[in-house]
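Note to self: the last two entries modelled the partners one at a time, which told us nothing about the interface. This time every component goes in together.
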Amino acid sequence: MRFPVSVICALLFAQSAPAFAALGAAVGPAAGTGQAQAQAQSDSARAKASARVTSYNGYSVSEVVEPSGTTVREYIGADNIVFGVSWQGPSMPNLQQLLGSYADQYVSAASAPHPGRRAVAIQSDQLVLHSGGHMRSFAGSAYVPALLPQGVTPDNIR
Amino acid sequence: MRFLTYLLCLFCSLLLLACGGGGGGGSGSGSGSTPAPAPQPQPAQNVQTLVLDSGPLTASGQSVGAVNSPYVTLTICQPGSTTQCQTIDHILVDTGSSGLRIMSSVLAGNMALPAVTSANGNPVAECARFADGYSWGSVKQADLRIAGEVASGISVHIIGDSALPTVPSGCSGSLVAENTVAAFHANGLLGISTFVQDCGGACASQALAGWYYSCSSLNCSAIALALGQQVGNPVAVFPQDNNGTLIQLPAVGANGASGVTGSLIFGIGTQANNALGSATIYTLNSSGNLNTLYQGQTTPAFFDSGSNGLFFADSSIPNCTLSTGFYCPTSTLSRSAVNTGVNGRSNSVSFNVANADSLFQSNPNNTAFSNLAGAEAFASFFDWGLPFYFGRSVYTALEGVSAGGTVGPYVAY
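The predicted structure of the combined assembly is written out below.
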């Protein structure tokens, strides 16, 4: 059932815009700020890899396999805003690009003295993020609670 | 204190060298009629002591406050030299990564190691990215001497090298820099995972941002790097005892312990002290994982001496308010999980989850805890960190080679 939809959507999206933006930012050419343009530029290399887009009720998921082999997914609401991201594969993704304006929150949380090593868990009103794994096998996800579309739960972001 | 230790260690390693290098000497004193027996290669001294203390001091002289961190002391030398060497303590033993990494701040000024260079002659640099940050620095050539073993001419990651102050965006994109002893909680890392190289084939065939770079005086650009030049598991380069490792740690009680030591033994089934014995082999997939069933959910799992807790998802266990990242149940919980190797071998492991805040507050001098656990990325992984290793012999077999009759990658315990 899901497969045909995803193929159709992938074709549709392939003709419009590469579906990569940072967490909390708008996808596509609508975003016109300088920051968004810079972001689009830095994303262009990644966009060379074809994004597979799957539509669900109220949101869509854009999936790209990076050259390293790591799969990165962006969860996009009906308002075209990225409300969540996830990754899985042999290399960590570029979190600066994925988290965008939320990167600062990640840095302050991850830089705080923490006796635990190897796993990052951030649970705040602004950002929920988990990152774990080992060299050659990483996985993690992040979302903005306030941006979660109605009916979407954190379990949907994998 | 430190200086004296250094001298002692240097003396010890010289002795070891003298012992390990021989084997065939002293011939010619027998009777003329009986030919001297062919010299037999002597087994190398393959045991290095693991120390679980509070870690090295930072540049400002403060304790890094480490817990569950297995450290070794090792010696690095100029390639081919047995005299231009430096012995370095508090190198963290990590079965969750591959490669020797040393903080540049602990390298002596006269340890100017030769650079690994790219095709155009420029020095090679590397970004090592972990789940919680990145380490950036140059790649140099050195010989590693540990116990009686030698890894000659290996690539070593020199982290925080002041010669390369500008971090490429593909590396700093991991956001949190771990380029100092304070951030790294160690003077270096001895990565002895099941992988021969840290990156492997992906980096040999293409220039990947966030891995290897060639640096001119102006900037650094991503490059492909041949497998043999990559930073990798030094054990694979030993002339013997080169198919894996064995970590042995004593059991520790419910309140933890101080002064815990154990053994890092090189080789599997190569000497009397590293036979598999009754251990069961669990083979791993190409990502270095097996499957773990916990509370009805199956997730990929790995064994990582560099993780200082057991990290897994369990929303029923409260998180700590002080020791963030760890679990703080109201009373100690008994749990179990079932590991299943790619080879189908299966085994249930029981463990306890104590309140980390209470543990640390009640036992401020203890640095080894078998009941320390925390949250992993949703249900992404079950991370069998150092608490798993207490009271066990845990074997880590390298990919692609036979160890005790079975080809790795595998974990056995």
